[in-house]
Amino acid sequence: MKGKTTLIAASALTAVLIATIITTSEKAGGMEFVNANTPVPAVGTEGGPAFPLSAQELDTWIRGRRVFDRDFHLDDGLGLPEFNGDSCRSCHQAPAIGGGGGLDLNVSRFGNDNGGAGPFNNLPGGQLAHRFRRVDVPGREEYDPMTADVFEQRQTPSLLGLGLIELIPEAEILMNEDPMDLNGDGVFGYARMIDVGGGVMELGRFGWKCGVPNLEDFSKDAASNELGITVADAARGFGFTTDADGITDPEFVQGDLDDMVFYLRNLAAPPRMASTSALVALGEMLFTTIGCATCHVPTLQSTMGPISPYSNFLLHNTSPPGFRGMEETNAPAGFYRTAPLWGISRTAPYMHDGLAETLEDAILAHDTEALAARNAFNAFGGADRAALIAFLEDL
User: Fold this and answer.
1) How many C-beta atoms lie closer than 10 Å to residue 32's C-beta?
2) In 119-244, beta strands by DSSP E
3) Backbone dihedral region for residue 336 (phi beyond 0: left; psi -120 to 50: alpha; all else: beta)
4) Distance (Å, rounded) from C-alpha 391 to C-alpha 395?
5) CB–CB of 339/100 below 8 Å?
6) Confidence (pLDDT) at 125
7) What's the distance, CA 288 to chain centroid?
8) 179 preceded by cis ω (within 30°)?
9) SS3 call for 31
C-alpha cells in the first residue's frame, strides 16, 4: 500500500499542472456536451426523462441537464482547494450524460487501519485523495498521504434511474434485511441508517456504502467533495457552505441546484433489451437458481409501481477474507451496497474499484456472502455460463 501512496504523492505536481491546463483551456473554449437546443432523448431511453413531462417541467429538466453539464472554472469557485473534476458530466457521461465513467475516472480514498490490526482512522481532512489541486488557494497542508497504509479506488457509477430509487418506500427495502442470517443462506444484508442531524435517522440509498439518503444530499455532497463548490445549506451534513477561495458563497446557486436535482430525479433508468432469446431466459433462471437474485432483487415496488433495478439497496460483504479498505460509520471495510444491474452491460468496468473488466470478471470477484453463488457459477459448463452472461447483457 505504501508503494501506491508514494506513487500518488509523487504525481502531485503533475496533477496541479493538469488541473491548471484543464481549467484554463476549458474557460477559453468550453467543453459542455449540451446546450438549450440539444435534443431531448425519448421518454424512457438512456439520457432521456423517466416520465412524460409538462412543458414547464421539461424546461426545468433541460435547465437541470445544463447545470449537470456545466464546466465550473476558477472564478466560479472550482476547487476546495482540491477537486476530482470540473463538472458533474466530466465523470458521469457513458453511455449517455448522467451515466457512468471509465477506469480513468476512478477516484482514490486513503486511510490508516494500523496495518490491518485496526482501528481504522481517516486522514486529516477526510478519506478523499483528489485528482487535482489548486495552487492559488491555501488549505489542507496538513494532509500527508504518506501516513496512509490502506488505499482504495472507487469507480464512477451510473446515475441513470436514481430518481426511481428514491421512490422505493423504506419498508420495501427493510423487508429484505437479514443481518443475523435467520434463514441460513449465508447472506447478511442490512440497511444503513444515516444521521442527518439531531439524531434523525434516514435510510441510506446512494453511494458505494449507502451513505446518502436522497438526491439533494447526493448532489450537495458531490458538488463540494468532487468539484470543490460550496452550497447554500449543509445542515443535513452533506456539502460545505464556505471555503477559502475568495469567491462569494454559496458558489452553487440554490436555484441551479434545485434544477439539477429535478433533472436527476427525472432521469430515466436504462431500458432493458427485452430479448426473447431462449438463451437469455435460461440465464435468468440460472441467475435466480444460484442465488444472485437474493441480493440483486429483480423487482421492487415504488410509489409509481414496480421497478427492476436488480438490487436490494442493502450493504453486503462481498470482499475476500482479510480485505482492507475504507470504513465508515456502520459500514465496515469490504461492505458495499448491492449495485443495481439495470444497464449493466453498458457501464463497464465493474465492482467498487472498477478492476473487473468484464461481467464474468465481476462475478468471479464476488466473495464471502456471495461465495456460494460464485462457486455455482464456476461449476457451470460453458453453455450455462454463456446463458447467464447473455441474461446480464440483456438488462
Assistant:
1) 14
2) 128-129, 132-133, 150-154, 193-195, 201-203
3) beta
4) 7
5) no
6) 81
7) 25
8) no
9) coil
